[in-house]
Write a structure and sequence with these properties.
Layout (H helix, E strand, L loop, with lengths): L7 H20 L7 H26 L10
Length: 70
């Protein structure tokens, strides 16, 4: 059985992309929530995605705790 699973880094990148899309929808006047809330939600999701991606790369050994590459 060959199951394909997303790593933390891939999941974090996808999460950040979703947040960016939510923020960009505001530019095209597609409101999925109140405008201020939509911006906050988009920014929050981008930040969470970046943190998840960083944790995945740190666990893999690509990054040091300070964020620099090994």
């Amino acid at each position: 059985m060959n199951e394909s699973k997303f790593s933390l880094t891939q999941s974090g990148n996808l999460t950040a992309l979703v947040g960016l899309i939510v923020m960009l929808l505001k530019l095209f006047n597609v409101n999925i929530a109140e405008t201020e809330i939509q911006s906050f939600i988009g920014a929050f999701v981008v930040i969470v995605g970046i943190i998840i991606s960083w944790i995945g790369r740190y666990r893999k050994g690509d990054l040091k705790l300070s964020g620099f590459r090994n």
